[in-house]
Design goal:
Blueprint lengths: L3 H11 L6 E6 L4 H14 L5 E5 L7 E5 L7 E4 L7 H11 L8 H8 L5 E7 L6 H14 L3 E7 L4 H6 L7 E4 L2 E5 L4 H6 L15 E6 L3 H11 L5 E5 L23 H13 L3 E5 L3 E6 L3 E5 L4 E9 L3 E3 L15 E2 L2 H4 L7 E5 L3 H11 L4 E5 L9 H8 L4 E4 L2 E8 L3 E8 L5 E4 L3 E4 L3 E3 L30 E3 L11 H22 L1
Parallel strand pairs: 1-2, 4-6, 5-6, 9-10, 9-14, 10-11, 14-25, 16-23, 17-18, 17-23, 18-19
Antiparallel strand pairs: 1-3, 3-4, 5-7, 7-8, 12-13, 13-14, 15-24, 20-21, 21-22
Helix pairs in contact: 3-5, 8-9, 8-13, 11-12
Length: about 500
């Protein structure tokens, strides 16, 4: 089942085992159970510290990852391959006794949980956001015996997915009730869980440069500031930003092809090589400038700095039409790579004819029965090469001059209504899903009541060196009025803003 390259890599990881691990598998006579047995036999043959036993269980196929005399609370229902293979490896190492690499504050919060919590995470193997959630909940199960977690692969347990009306991944259930949906970090999940261990936010002395945002622009700004030998901090709700939702990147010069999560993991590792105070899982709510720049946080704390670089990035723009909010994660989706497999064999619509929309349509055409592409303008805006690829597909219909009016259904998406702009006539498409890909909107709403100037699109107005209209406040990346929104341009603007901030500090004495 595993190719030679994967086996060699797995052998290297298994040398890091600190104790014995047993896989207790509940198997049936079906094909998926046979595949799981084959997988476990291959894995256990790679180390004398691994063993495999068959046990009775309600859900089949699944296996737990345990120590010989103690359960860990970690279960994999379905094969943890694809993006989840890393989750499997980490679970094995952590159950063996290898400590997870998390902040001390997160350790304390997890240890302070006294309730019995059982999490179930429904995933697809093509979802690049799912492993973050699976790995976070597995860590919680390893560290606290009151917590257990089961990863459920939707392709193996289709009936369960249909019964629970799951139309987006990752979807997490806690003690049988829906708990969260979509990408989330360990810190973000912990915010939603009651704990007896109160962890106070660590106070910081004022920074020389404080970067707000953990995407490409923010990371670049932090590195360039730290290289100047000045006191640097980086505040992020989630390190990685919008790039974490990018499946394939082919235009980073010097890196012909990579994946978004992998790329940002390497960027984070690069940041951590410098003396940067990385403050993760925190959200800024306002900013003001007096002698220092003061940043107010959602948790009630404040941070101060002589200069600040705003690099908060952007998020997918909403249509703001009836049904969009109601059916979010119930047929309305924004990530075809994550949620596409849940619509296998069904008809779906893609709203948006730019690069993102056409890339989504091409991907979905290989999974879905039929794909409708709706573009507001009279022609597609995507690159020519993407339009040519789209034209080769026989199960895609492109509808131009189409104004999407509503997304329809009862408890989930059942249709989409659009207006023909040339005639005013309305048409309804019977679709099970609507993927919205109409561009990005800057994450600047929190700045609307501050002194920082924004343009009509909500973008921060900057000069050539990244300055805003407020002395000491700089900005970079997709949250600014930069004409082109690209990873490489965001990184360049982050470096520019950091250098601009350093120059500002020098001139301030």
């Amino acid at each position: 089942m595993l190719d030679n390259n994967t086996i060699q890599q797995l052998k290297q990881y298994l040398t890091m085992l600190e104790g014995p691990v047993v896989f207790n598998a509940s198997l049936g006579s079906d094909e998926n159970s046979n595949k799981m047995k084959e997988f476990l036999v291959e894995v256990t043959a790679l180390s004398d510290l691994l063993s495999f036993e068959e046990v009775a269980g309600l859900r089949k196929p699944q296996f737990t990852v345990d120590q010989p005399d103690q359960t860990s609370g970690i279960t994999f229902a379905g094969l943890p391959l694809g993006h989840e293979f890393a989750s499997f490896i980490l679970a094995v190492l952590q159950v063996s006794g290898r400590a997870p690499k998390i902040d001390e504050a997160d350790y304390q919060q997890i240890e302070g949980i006294t309730e019995t919590l059982h999490f179930e995470t429904f995933i697809s193997l093509t979802c690049q956001n799912c492993p973050d959630v699976v790995q976070a909940l597995n860590i919680m199960a390893v560290l606290n015996p009151n917590i257990s977690h089961t990863m459920i692969e939707g392709g193996t347990f289709k009936e369960e997915v249909e019964t629970k009306n799951i139309l987006a991944v990752p979807t997490v259930f806690l003690n049988g009730e829906e708990f969260s949906s979509g990408r989330a970090t360990l810190a973000q999940l912990l915010k939603k869980i009651p704990t007896t261990q109160k962890v106070d936010f660590k106070a910081r002395d004022p920074f020389d440069v404080l970067v707000v945002g953990g995407g490409p622009a923010g990371a670049s700004a932090a590195i360039y500031a730290a290289r100047k030998g000045i006191r640097t901090g980086l505040l992020a709700n989630e390190f990685g930003g919008q790039v974490l939702e990018t499946l394939t990147i082919e235009n980073i010069i010097g890196t012909p092809k990579t994946k978004g999560p992998k790329f940002m993991a390497e960027v984070k590792q690069h940041v951590e090589e410098y003396d940067v105070d990385l403050i993760d899982g925190q959200i800024a709510t306002s900013i003001q400038k007096d002698d220092l720049v003061t940043l107010n946080l959602e948790n009630g704390a404040t941070l101060q700095s002589k200069a600040v670089v705003l690099a908060t990035g952007a998020h997918w723009r909403n249509l703001n039409i009836p049904g969009e909010a109601k059916f979010k994660n119930k047929g309305v989706a924004y990530c075809p790579h994550c949620d596409g497999p849940l619509f296998a064999g069904k008809d779906v619509a893609v709203v948006g004819g730019g690069n993102s929309g056409i890339e989504a349509a091409i991907d979905l055409a290989g999974i879905c029965h039929h794909v409708y592409v709706l573009e507001f303008l009279s022609e597609l805006k995507a690159d020519k090469i993407l339009q040519e690829r789209l034209g080769e597909l026989h199960n895609v219909t492109v509808i131009l001059n189409a104004e999407t009016m509503s997304i329809d259904g009862d408890d989930k998406v059942a249709g989409l209504t659009y207006r023909k702009r040339e005639t005013g006539e309305k048409e309804t498409l019977a679709v099970a899903g609507a993927f919205i890909l109409i561009g990005l909107q800057p994450n600047t709403k929190w700045l609307e009541s501050t002194a920082v100037n924004l343009n009509e699109r909500g973008e921060i107005i900057t000069t050539a060196d990244g300055r805003t209209n407020v002395a000491g406040i700089f900005a970079a990346g997709d949250c600014t009025d930069s004409r082109y929104k690209q990873i490489i341009i965001a990184m360049g603007s982050g470096a520019t803003a950091a250098l601009g901030a350093f120059d500002y500090l020098i001139r301030q004495g």
